[in-house]
Amino acid sequence: MKRILVIGGTSAMIRESLRMFAKEGSKIYITGRTENKLTSIADELKVLGADVKEECIDLDLSDEHLNFIKRAAEYLEKIDIAILAHGINIPQAEADSNIESGRKMIQTNFVSYVSLLTLIANQMIEQGSGKIAAIVSVAGDRGRQSNFLYGATKAALDTYLSGLRNKLHKYGIKVISIKPGYVDTPMTASFPHNPLFTSAKEAGELIFKAISVEKDIVYIPWFWRWILTIIKIIPEQIFKRMRL
Amino acid sequence: MSDLISSNNPSSFLKKFFGAGIESFESWGRYPKVQNQNEFIPYWLNEAIPYSSPLLAYGLGRSYGDCCLCDNGTIISTRNINRLISFDKEDGIIECDAGISFSDLLEFIVPHGWFLPVTPGTRFVTLGGAIANDVHGKNHHREGTFGRHIIELELLRSDCKSLILSAGNNPEFFNATIGGIGLTGLITKAKIKLKKIHSAFIDAETIRFGNLNDFDKLSRESDSTHEYTVAWLDGSSRGKSFGRGHFIRGNHSEEGALVPGKKNPSITIPCDFPEFFLNRLSIRAFNETYFRKPLANSKIHYSPFFYPLDVLGKWNRIYGKRGFFQYQCVIPETAGIPAIHDLLETGIKLGTGSFLTVLKHFGELKSPGMLSFPMKGYTITMDFPFEKLKSIELIKRLDAITRSAGGRVYTAKDAGSADDLYYSSFNIEKFEKFIDPAFSSNLWRRVKRSRV
Ligand SMILES: Cc1cc2nc3c(=O)[nH]c(=O)nc-3n(C[C@H](O)[C@H](O)[C@H](O)COP(=O)(O)OP(=O)(O)OC[C@H]3O[C@@H](n4cnc5c(N)ncnc54)[C@H](O)[C@@H]3O)c2cc1C
Ligand SMILES: NC(=O)c1ccc[n+]([C@@H]2O[C@H](COP(=O)([O-])OP(=O)(O)OC[C@H]3O[C@@H](n4cnc5c(N)ncnc54)[C@H](OP(=O)(O)O)[C@@H]3O)[C@@H](O)[C@H]2O)c1
Q1: Residues of A in contact with B84 (CB under 8 A)
Q2: Structural domain that includes position B116
Q3: What number is the ipTM of this complex?
Q4: What total of structural domains would you count in chain B?
């Protein structure tokens, strides 16, 4: 039986991964911010065969983190896997005109992660084992005019995870950076959907697999690795002139 | 993450070659085409609908014709509203959101020793879609339609009222919603009674027959011995070979593991085939080869038995961009095999011949659904590539045979049959009282137009 802590468990793509963990009969401590979404997901995971406890929490309130991780660790007894998925995507134009909304995105997508990851890493070092999976994004691989603040929060997280992986390696603790491309979820509902989009179900299943095989960095789906490789090698001289 | 790649970009390039992306809310036959349709894909049912009416629910678009399309309106895709809500392992009663697919449902229930009471020939349909067309399967002679196995359902109306419907609670509304082709509102969840199984395998048997009368004999014999019966017909051979085919029958096996089938298709057709690929000759060759294939009588998994076509993802692309249509009607017992003979013959003479033809004897169990398609008699389905005027003429001729035999056409397949057939088959005036004023579909507009 796997003991799993899920933060941002109401994310549409993570819900799909959780369904797969639930079918294996896992023990899951799930958090989300919106109560009715959280209970509806938790109830289904129970029907699917998991042992579940849910907690409603707004992760922007960093003061709560310590107690919350304690409660989770107590329920699970041991955290085998911690999945962090929460995030918001404020359109660049809005962040440009309203500094406060941009600051909030940094809080949710990066600052809250630092505090949660620190607590989880310490817990896992104490346990002597564990796996951490956090959702980054291909948007963090290179800044583009259409969404560079969102991209920057993800780039910061990406760098943080890479350092954390380096630090935790000697304890046998795995850190998995998950980089989805376009996924069809509420976050992207207002975007025009092109053929590069992956369904939440497929993304969730790929994330489930990536966590099981313990890759360090995984693109969801795989072809984004190559798309980003190309985007990254475009010289800045040319890149700055492009409309991306 | 908006606009990773901007407007004139690789995606339009990909679109050109691969057809639309995952967001193509068309019908399975891809004829008729839909125009000016908004798409709304909620994850949570409390989201407000950002577009205007008319509205129409859309499941997995496995209907061939226009019952799942809404020109100048908004379709509500239910595919993300797909939770399992409760499951009674002892009695086999399950409650789910209407957007759950039969594929996901099977994956969950089979290991517990339960099966769908009735299943169509593909597992990529949603619970809501199966209710709205009141689907039937190879066991119609034993179990009737899917609608007979619904204990209760919840219907969301455009006035935001939620109705709980069952045979005991608001029965007329319940009966209008079963087979109600999405017109009575949005089905949000349903509770169904499953069928107990001991194995995921089917003891299956396939028998070659030479003509339609032999089919009839085999079918009548098998009705009492086999839970599942159906026939594949050679839809393109004339003369001595006319009406030949394979009779397929089976029962749930008592032995074998309770393992669900593979989740996804093994191969997906990546792009539209050129239109000349399926023509009179290639269709003939396919039917000939298929008829001659060696037959095995054996224990097989339920997947290849019920869902042989599901191994090929997006197989509708082999018909090319023009699309195709499937003609399915039911002929009452009284008109019987002679009418089936005429339909098959017309398909061969007037059309390209049918690529895939299926014949089944329906039993007499009545469905609660007001517009439910099945009745005691024979149902035939034939697939044809869409060839403009020629196809329209073909449908007209097939309709004429159905009409004079006192038969019906199936909403799930209909892409342009004579709309008066609905008025002669059902009590449309009674049904109309239950229609949600904000809902409509292309099929429904056709039916209404036949009366003005
Ligand atoms: C290969 C293949 C084999 C098939 N074999 C059979 C067969 O053996 N027997 C048979 O009966 N059918 C068969 N069908 C047809 C199929 O079962 C029906 O068309 C079914 O309704 C498709 O379900 P869907 O979820 O794709 O619904 P869609 O095609 O998307 O929609 C069908 C109708 O249901 C309505 N609807 C969908 N969801 C809801 C909801 N939540 N609330 C209200 N209305 C809703 C839509 O408005 C529409 O009118 C087959 C189809 C294919 C492609
Ligand atoms: N969709 C994509 O194309 C894509 C691509 C790359 C990366 N990602 C990343 O994938 C992750 C999952 O997103 P998704 O696409 O699945 O979208 P989603 O369904 O909108 O999930 C985001 C989740 O984060 C939660 N959340 C946001 N702020 C929170 C806060 N302050 N406290 C607690 N929870 C909070 C949301 O909760 P509520 O439901 O309560 O709002 C929601 O459940 C995100 O980190 C996103 O950045 C997405």
Answers
A1: 44, 47-48
A2: 84-197
A3: 0.88
A4: 2
